[in-house]
Each structure stands twice: as structure tokens, then as C-alpha cells.
Amino acid sequence: MPGIDKLPLEETLEDSPQTRSLLGVFEEDTAATSSYFSQLFKAMQRIYDAQNELSAATHLTSRLLKDYEKQRFPLGGDDEVMSSTLQQFAKVIDELSSCHAVLSTQLADAMMFPITQFQERDLREIVILKEVFQISSDDHDTAVNRYSRLSKRKENEKVKNEVMEDVYTSRKKQHETIMHYFASLNMLQYKKKIALLEPLLGYMQAQISFFKLGSENLTQQWEEFLTNIGTSVQNVRREMDSDAEATEQTIQDLKAASDPLYMPDPDPNKIPVNRNLTRKAGYLNTRYKTGLVSSAWERQYFFTQGGNLMSQSRGDVAGGLVMDIDNCSVMAVDCDDRRFCFQITSFDGKKIYLSENPEEIAARVNQSALEAVTPSPSFQQRHESFRPIIHTTPVHQLMSLQFFQVSICCVVPQFPLSSVVLCASHQENKRLFGFVLKTAGGRVDGRPVTVCYVFESNNDGEKICDSVGLAKQIALHSEMDLEEQSRLIAASSRPGQPAADGQFLVLSNSQSEDSDAGEEGQKTGESEA
Predict the structure, then answer these.
(1) Which domain range does residue 355 map to?
(2) Residues 339 and 426 placed together within one structural domain of the fold
(3) Distance of CA 328 to CAs 13, 323, 348, 364, 415, Å?
(4) Where is the composition biased (Basic and acidic residues) (predicted)?
(5) Are residues 352 and 333 in contact, defined by beta-carbon separation less than 8 angstroms?
(6) What does the CA dihedral 324, 328, 334, 339 come to, rounded to 10 degrees?
(7) Which pick of 113, 233, 270, 470 has the fewest CB atoms within 10 Å?
(8) What are phi and psi of 32, to 5 degrees?
(9) Are residues 188 and 324 in the same domain?
């Protein structure tokens, strides 16, 4: 390394202008050195801080990967393969985190410590010595000026001695100070080279050590593991690209097919109304009262489910029942503040007023208000394929209902009437009713085994239970002659004629009570059994 320039210590006592001029050059160099090292220190401090953040982030990543199997994702499910893979990744990253921690320690010792010492000790020492040198130089100039003003006419030996002592002391102090100042400036030329090279050497050695440590930990096994994961990622990416392409094509197809539906009033000739729907769903506006004579509209999502009209607001988990629409009437109505309005009236007189928002496909409701809320098919239609063969006795007295048929011999599907212990309807929903049947074989703990069947009907469940009771009563009197059986059937019929579609037989309450009373003792005994 070439030699360095130095301030001459031999000329410090003389303190000539040339010496002061050379001192100014060294002071300018010191200022430039201080500015440069201040920037270099900030850069290395950022490296050190970034390494500490990387070490902490790597450790946090490892911990989060270990906790993955504890997470519960609504759509993720229990993916054991992913959990096992992430556990392996956590192990690798945990080892890397240890390597990063070692690197952070080495950077602190080998890089940050030398440059920090140069900043806070060496450069700070030069600043202090400069201030002391300036003070001692001013004191020396003051003492020399005072000595120069001593009078020759009136010499005062005491004063003269004091002034001379002052000059001696100040000159000695200035000389010592300037020599230390010059020496420190000369040493600074060496120190700044060391302070520049030593942190860089420490940084490179720490990085090399880190890479060696990582190479030792990442064995061939980990390399194979990472290769397999890379292959899996490429497979997932190809699958994603294929799915994205198919999704984009689906979007384009849906856009082309849905373009006519974007208009609020599409042409019914181009989009005919589907009159064969078994389910209907969409947004409607429902009217509700806000006062005695005032009302407002609220937008809700309506859908049919079975024979029920349901509604659901946005944010709700499930829908709620609005009304039973199997036995209701639908008609279009005129409203001043809404278009395409219609009214649904249930069998008990309950009415709701609905309007489809213009931004929806309002033309369908305009075409036929009935199509806006399409009742589902009756239970007789839905369960037609499940209806078994009907076995009857020679009396051949059948009562046809919307869900099944009851004969004096058996209950469809193939329940012997003699096994019916109890038949009852739901107290709140009259469309629900059930049978409690006594099984044919075996007992459990000395008690007969019973089975309960629950059904849903389009008609009143109490009527069906009345019919079952009547059928059982007729079965009990099966040995009676045909004329007596006909008389009992005629006596138990309610006033009025059955429906035109022959779907159910209307029975009177009094005769149902007679039927039930006739069997009360037997039902009680069977129930207790």
C-alpha cells in the first residue's frame, strides 16, 4: 500500500502559515472522510437491519408452517398431503432460520463493530482535538499580545514575570495540543483505510460462512424433496392454466347466452316463458305496511321449495317460510309505484304483493303472473314412481288421497292395518302426519318393537288419519254383510261431494270421533305395549 501524507510534528512549535495551510488540507480531508463514512455506515446498517428482519421473518415463517395443520379452512378440508409437505418445509426453513441467526451475529461482530468504532471513537476524537487546539491557540495569541504591550519605561518586575509565565504556559499547551492533533490526523489516514476494508472483509466472511453452513444442512435428501415439490407445483400450474382457459370459455359462452337477458323487458318471442318449471327463484320486491295507509317495498330473494314459498335476505344463512302455495291463487294486479305486480292469496286469506324489479327479467311475470311463483308438483306426481301395488279385500272400499291410498286391508306402502297402533297429524303443520306401526317379529326387553313413519301431504293430515281410522273400523267388522258395511260407510261420510279430481274423500268430524272412539280401547292397549 503506498505511503501516506503526514503533518510535520517538528514544525508545530513554529506554527508557520505554511504549516497552518497544510493543516487546512488535512481538515478538509477529514470532513470528506466523515461524510463518506456516514453514508457507508447507513448502508451497512441497512444490511444488518435487513438481515435481522430476514432472520425473524424466516423464523416466523417456520412457525406458521408448523401451525398449518391446526388451522381450519372452510374450503380446505383435511389435506394430509399438504400438511405433511408443509411440515417438511417448516423443518428446512427452521434450519435456514438458524443459519440466518448465525449470520446476523457475525455481521454484528465483523462488520458493524469496526465501522461503528471508527465513527464514534476515531472521528469523534479528531473533532474534540480540533476544538481544544483552537482554544489553546487563542489563549497563546492572547498571552503573546499581552507580553508585547509591556512598557519599557515603567517596568514592573512582578507583572513582567506573570506575563512571561502566562506566555510560557500557553505556548507549551498549544504545542502539546497541536502535536496530538497532528498525530491524530496522521493516524486517521491509516484508520480510515482499516475502517473501510475491515467491515467489508467481515461482511464477505460472514456470507461465505452462511453459504457453507446452508450447504452442509441442505443435503441431497432435501434437494430431492425440493425437486419433487417443484414438479408438483408445475403440475398444479398446468392444471390451473387449463381450468382458467375452460373458465374463460365458460364466461364467454355465458355472456353470449345471457346477452338478451340483460334487458329489463326482453322480447317474449325471443325468450319464451317456460311453463314447465318445478322450481323458481329470483329477486322480488315485497310490499309491507309502514302505517295505516302507507306502505313500502323491500327487495328480497324468493324461491319455491316443495309446495312452499320461501324468502331469504342477503346475509342470511337460510330462507324462511312465507306461505304454502300448493293451495293458493296467483293473479296480476295494478300498482301505481311498481311494474309487473302480482298477488298471492293463500287458502286462509293471507295475501302478499310482489313485484319483480325492472333490472330482473320482468317480462316473464308480465307474460303470466302465475309463472312467477310456480308451485311444485303435488306429492302424488312426485311419488308416482314409488307407489306400490294396492292390495284390497273383496269389499274393495278405497279412499284416494294425494300421497297414498288407504284400503280396509292395508296402508300404502303395504302397511297391514292391523299393525297400525297410532295415526296422528302435526299440531302446527297439518300437512304432516305419521303412523306408529307394530312390527311383526320379535320383542326387545320384553316389549314389542314399534316403528314410526312420517309423511307430508297436500291435504289435511287429520282427514287422512280419519280415513285410516274408518278403514280400521271397517276391517274390524269385515265379517258383517255387505249391506251393513255400506251403511257404515254412508253414515261416516261428511256432507258434501268429493273433489272433482277424486284426490281425497271428505269425512265429518263426528264420524271421525265415532271411529276413533270405537278403537280407543284397542289403541290404548297397543300404545302402552
Answers:
(1) 281-372
(2) no
(3) 120, 9, 9, 20, 32
(4) 520-529
(5) no
(6) 40
(7) 270
(8) -65, -40
(9) no
Closest Cα to residue 122, out of 174, 176, 183, 47? Answer: 183
Which residue type, as a one-letter code, is found at position 170? S
Domain at 361, CATH number: 2.30.29.30
Among 139, 182, 183, which Cα is nearest to 19's? Answer: 182
Joined together, the cell numbers standing for residue 130 give: 480540533
390 vs 102, higher pLDDT:
102
> SS3 for 496?
coil
Task: List pLDDT tens digits, range 478-524.
Answer: 545 555 555 555 554 444 443 333 333 333 333 333 334 344 433 33
- Written as nine digits, the cell of 355 is 313485484
The answer to whether residues 405 and 362 belong to one domain is no
Calculate the alpha carbon distances from 138 to 113, 142, 146, 183 in Å: 37, 6, 12, 20
Q: Domain count for the chain, please give it.
A: 3
Please check whether residue 264 lies inside any domain of the structure.
no
Range 252-261 average pLDDT:
86
Whether residue 38 is found in the same domain as residue 126: yes
Residue 271 lies in a domain: no
| Among the listed residues 319, 366, 364, 373, the one whose alpha carbon sits nearest the alpha carbon of residue 346 | 373
**How far apart (Å, rounded) are the C-alpha atoms in residues 437 and 192?**
103
Q: Do residues 186 and 292 both lie within one domain?
A: no
**Domain annotation covers residue 408:** yes
The C-alpha atoms of residue 61 and residue 328 are separated, in whole angstroms, by: 62
pLDDT score for 484? 58
Of the listed ranges 35-49, 136-150, 314-328, the least confidently predicted one is 314-328
Selection from 415, 406, 413, 518 nearest residue 459 by Cα: 406
Going by their DSSP bridges, the two strands 351-355 and 341-346 should be labelled as antiparallel
Strands 432-444 and 420-425: antiparallel
Does residue 303 contact residue 283 with C-beta atoms inside 8 Å? Answer: no
CA distance 100 to 89: 16
Residue 132's CATH number: 1.20.1270.60
* In contact, 12 and 178? CB cutoff 8 Å: yes
- Separation between Cα atoms, residue 12 and residue 174, nearest integer Å: 9
Report d(CA 217, CA 99) in Å as an integer.
9
Over residues 386-421, the pLDDT tens digits come to 333 333 322 263 333 333 534 333 344 556 777 888
Arithmetic mean of pLDDT, 319-336: 83
**Pairing status of strand 281-289 against strand 410-411:** unpaired
Count the neighbouring beta carbons within 10 Å of the beta carbon of residue 311: 19
- Any idea what DSSP says for residue 454? E
Structural domain contains residue 518: no
- Does 411 share its domain with 366? no
Q: What's the full length of the chain, in residues? A: 529
Residue 425: pLDDT over 50: yes
